[in-house]
Amino acid sequence: MRRYLLALLAACSLTAVADDNWKPFPYDKAAYDYSGDKLREAWPRLTRGFGANYPYPDADWVVTMATRYPKALELTVTGNTGFTGKPEEAEVYAAKLQDVWRLMFRGDFAEAKKQGLALGVGGQIPAMFAQVVYAMFLVPDQTEKHRLLEEVIRYTDEAGDLVKADVVAQFGSAYAKARLGEELPVPVVLKRGYTSQIPEELDALLKTQPQQPFALALYGGYEAGVIRRVGKLVGKMTYGVSSEKMEQYFARSFKAKDDLPIGHYEYANALDYVYGEDEEAKALEHLKKAVAIKPINAMEALEVAHAQKLLKQREEKLAQN
After folding, report:
1. Quick one: signal sequence residues (predicted)?
2. Into how many domains does the chain fold?
């Protein structure tokens, strides 16, 4: 146990890099204070998009991960974590890991990345999730956005079985690939293998978490995105995507959780990709649902703001017609 816990507390060749140039979260952070016991109390709601019963990162979780994934842990190396690896120090490690999650939910994305990577594999999960959120909503430059998303994919690939077994890490990697797949040239996407990797990774995730709202919405968005880029016929014959499957994935996502802003605005985008103006009314309906949701963390605040922007654009376009 001592050897395994030491490996968990160590960094797996990850370097804690301060991203001092990251833009700050643009809204009031006070609304997303989860200090002390507030984090555990709010955890089920904060993590509802990850699926049912996403584990709270307490000392028991640290010890469980240390024993469950010995092969992955053996591949890690000792980092400057300040721990000796004694099992009784799991409580200290867990407290620091909880602080990383607090930073992520509050919108301190750069600090979440820095402190998370300093904790090694376990801390990489909220660190890279913070990076995905920052890249998607706060990076103005597309080149930098792509670099950050590609880094998330690389970190996840290099982290081994422990991180790959976590549904947040799995989703973050697939999400990064999906977003890159939407913006990179088709030949680049094909060369990297994203068109096969994304459905394979989502299938693997949904095998263990069949009702994960984020993954289901992402799958629906992936189907719509392929149709947008290559058309319905080629999409179905070459990649196996269809508007019917797109609708089914979103329906399952909304059945699991209907109060996630990203699900509603992703569906609005998907409707536009697949049906165009024929489903304009339904797209507006879902954008209005998204903006009506009260965010409970920084990520959701950015999602609602994005939905508001999309809604305004659509309403202005309708007013001009």
Report:
1. 1-18
2. 1
